[in-house]
Every structure is written in C-alpha cells, then in structure tokens.
C-alpha cells in the first residue's frame, strides 16, 4: 500500500532551495491545489555525473554487460568489504541466483520472514524451493531466534534461510542462523534495504555466503533497476556469473575480448538476468555520492525521532542488534487506541495534504498465492498479524529538507487532537 504523488507533465518543476553534491535539494516535486508543496514518499535523483556516464556508454558502441559492469562489481565489492560481486538485473534475480548457487535440492525448504516483499518469496519458488514463513517481533518487524526456531521445527530441517535487514536495520544474522541450526554457508541475506548497514562493525555484504542488494529507483543507491550479489566464495560467484547469462560459460563481452572465441557451453540451468553497462555506469557514479546521501538519511531519521518521541500512539520500530542502520525507510507503529485514528486513516489524510506514505509490507501469509505455496507454522503468525495494521512508512530520502520533515511531523501531531475533538463533539 503506497500513496505516491507524481507530477503531471503540464506542471512546473519545483524551485530549487539548495543542492547536495550537485543534485537538487527540493521540498517537493510540485504543489497541490491549495498551493502547498507536495511531498512524495520517495524521490529518485540521478546525479549529473551519472547522467554523463550513461551518455558516454551509449556513445561507446557497447551497452550491455561489459567493462563498466566489471568495474562496478569491483568498486561495489570494495565498498562492502567482499571479495567478489556479481551484478544482475534486480535484487529478486540476485536472490534466486544465490539460492540456485547454494545447490539446495529441489523442493528444499527455505526460511523467510512473512513481513517482506513478495518478490523475495517468488525468488525462492522460482529456484524450485519452498518458502517456510517466519513470524516477526512486532516491536522490530524482524524475526527473533525464537520465531526462527519455531519455523525450523515445523519444517523438520530447513535447507537454507533468507535474512532480511528490514528498513535498513541490522539483523542478527549469526544468531538467526544458529537458531535455525544452519551454518552461515546456507544463509542468503536480503539486503535490498541495507546498502550502508553494518552488523557490529562489519558491513552487510561480507557476513554470510551470499548477500543480495537492490538498486531500484527508491533505494539508497538508486540506478532505476539492478541488483548485486556479494560473496567471499569464488566458486559461488562464478556459478552466479554463468547463471545470469543462461548458464553460458562465457558472455558476449568475454567472447569478444582479444583472444576470445565464439564457442561456449552450457552445463546447467540459467536465466537472463545480466546488468547492462548503462546501468553499471550510473551505479559507479552514484556510488561516489553514497556516503553523503547516507549522512543526510541519518539526519532525517534523527529529526523524525526527535519530533515524534513525545507523540502518543506513534512509535518508531526498535533496533535490537548492534551496528549501523542504513535508514532506507523510516517506519513507525501506529497504535490506534492511543493515537486516536488508525494507520489507513493517517495515510488517507496525509495524502489529502500532499504527503506520500507507504506500508512495508503486506505479510506474505495474507496473500492467497503464498497461503497455498508457502508453509505457515501451526498457530499462525501472530506477531505479524498484530504488526501489519500498525505499519506506516514516512517519507525518507536524502533530498527531504528539514522544513519538509517538520511539516510531516506537524501533520501527524495535529491528527490526534482533531480526532479527540471530533469524539468529544459526537459525544455531546
């Protein structure tokens, strides 16, 4: 559930207030009918350097997987402290390829939190495996060792586990693996939210056998589309490199290198999931801005926390694992009895005032397909059921100004008073 505010083509662009590394810093994309600036849930900015890099590749004569992709893989691997990185078409493809590369037997059972994006579960199914849903702690939106152990008992002996760093918060990867009685070699990290996250002092991307990142338009490192798998295992990396190009022993770029040839072989199944050099060039340029963008995300999160800390019924998610939060999302729990109105009403009212909001995520076991395709522990998933009606994601991106955050918090602060006054009037 997302309320997005998009700018119709006939409307003018906003007035720029300042810039962050040459990228405009604006309060909004447009204005609503009342003349107030609209605040979309997310804003994608492709830096001027990234735009020039894309144009350079487009003029080079080679636009698909090639030298820019190789360079992006090296630079991203160095950024997260991994030995290898393999660029792919999306995080969903990264998760599927990583699971395939683990050599989990067909039909093998994979633990996955029920509060996650549906694409993660689809990756398990596309790899020929079976998702086993894990409940979450409603205070953190992430599994605990106890909920993981419960799900592991249900399926007998899980073959692998997918660990999500929800919203960019560090997940206790080693503790969850131990609870599942799995070695870290059988853990795949879903780091779609976690570019910039660390667990203790180790960056996400260097913890388990395979970590999968997203470069979707709203992510911390936005390209538009794209993903990456990082690993310290050279054999796993080579399996994924082959599998992303139909299982071929050499992709088109390698075959066209000096000394290369047209011959190739296929020894196992694969799919079409490569990254283009256009995407990689954008990613390389965007990566140079990432540290500054992350600092701005941290500042926005601190401002939200300070403004909302005394607001009854609006509680930020707790972070219980030591490390660094990437602040991909700023998620709060709306406690209706304390706040005065429910989550859905808040989203509707924010939307009426030109403020975008979202919900991350609809639990998998609430969807008909996964009710059939996944394994749900007996007794259900009560933590996720309690949490879902409360989840609310507020706008968070590097180009959100202090003034914009103040306005969002002001709207949230006004709602309980309005609801309370209405109840008092209705009771007269």
Task: Give a short synopsis of this structure.
Helices cover 37% and strands 15% of the residues. The protein contains 15 helices and 17 strands.
Describe it.
The chain has two domains: about 50-285, Type I PLP-dependent aspartate aminotransferase-like (Major domain) (Aspartate Aminotransferase, domain 2); about 290-415, Alpha-Beta Complex (Aspartate Aminotransferase, domain 1). The chain has a seven-stranded mixed beta sheet, sandwiched between helices. A three-stranded antiparallel beta sheet has the order 10-9-14, with no helix packed on it. A three-stranded antiparallel beta sheet has the order 13-15-17. It has helices at about 50-60, 65-80, 90-100, 120-125, 145-155, 175-180, 235-245, 250-255, 275-285, 290-310, 335-340, 345-350, 370-375, 380-385, 400-425; strands spanning about 1-5, 20, 25, 85-90, 110-115, 130-135, 160-165, 185-190, 200, 200-205, 210-215, 225-230, 315, 325, 330-335, 355-360, 390-395. It is of the alpha/beta class and about 425 residues long. The two termini are about 35 Å apart.
């Amino acid at each position: 559930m997302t309320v997005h505010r998009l700018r119709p083509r006939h409307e003018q662009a906003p007035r720029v207030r300042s810039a962050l590394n040459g990228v405009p810093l604006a309060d909004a994309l447009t204005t609503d009918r009342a003349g107030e600036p609209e605040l979309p849930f997310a804003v994608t900015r492709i830096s001027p350097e990234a735009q020039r890099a894309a144009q350079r590749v487009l003029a080079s004569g080679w636009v698909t997987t090639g030298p820019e992709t190789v360079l992006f893989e090296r630079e991203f691997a160095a950024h997260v402290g991994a030995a290898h990185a393999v660029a792919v078409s999306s995080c969903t493809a990264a998760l599927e390829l990583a699971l395939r590369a683990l050599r989990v037997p067909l039909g093998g059972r994979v633990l996955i939190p029920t509060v996650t994006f549906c694409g993660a579960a689809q990756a398990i199914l596309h790899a020929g495996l079976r998702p086993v849903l894990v409940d979450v702690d409603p205070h953190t939106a992430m599994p605990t060792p106890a909920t993981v152990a419960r799900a592991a008992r249900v399926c007998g002996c899980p073959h692998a586990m997918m660990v999500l760093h929800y919203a960019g918060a560090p997940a206790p990867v080693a503790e969850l693996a131990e609870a599942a009685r799995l070695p870290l070699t059988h853990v795949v990290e879903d780091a779609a939210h976690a570019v910039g996250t660390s667990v203790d002092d180790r960056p996400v991307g260097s913890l388990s056998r395979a970590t999968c990142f997203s470069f979707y338009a709203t992510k911390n490192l936005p390209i538009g589309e794209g993903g990456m798998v990082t690993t310290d295992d050279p054999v796993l990396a080579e399996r994924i490199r082959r599998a992303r190009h139909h299982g071929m022993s050499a992709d088109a770029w390698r075959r066209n290198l000096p000394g290369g040839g047209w011959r190739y072989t296929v020894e196992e199944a694969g799919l079409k999931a490569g990254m283009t050099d256009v995407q990689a060039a954008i990613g390389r340029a965007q990566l140079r801005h990432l540290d500054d963008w992350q600092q701005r995300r941290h500042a926005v999160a601190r401002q939200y926390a300070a403004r909302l800390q005394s607001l009854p019924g609006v509680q930020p998610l707790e972070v219980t694992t030591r490390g660094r939060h990437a602040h991909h999302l700023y998620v709060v729990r709306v406690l209706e009895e304390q706040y005065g109105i429910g989550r859905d009403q808040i989203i509707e009212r924010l939307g009426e005032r030109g403020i975008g909001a979202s919900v991350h995520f609809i639990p998998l076991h609430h969807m008909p397909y996964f009710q059939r395709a996944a394994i749900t522990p007996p007794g259900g998933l009560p933590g996720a059921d309690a949490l879902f009606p409360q989840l609310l994601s507020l706008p968070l991106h590097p180009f959100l100004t202090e003034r914009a955050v103040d306005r969002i918090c002001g709207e949230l602060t006004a709602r309980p008073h309005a609801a309370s006054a209405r109840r008092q009037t209705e009771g007269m």
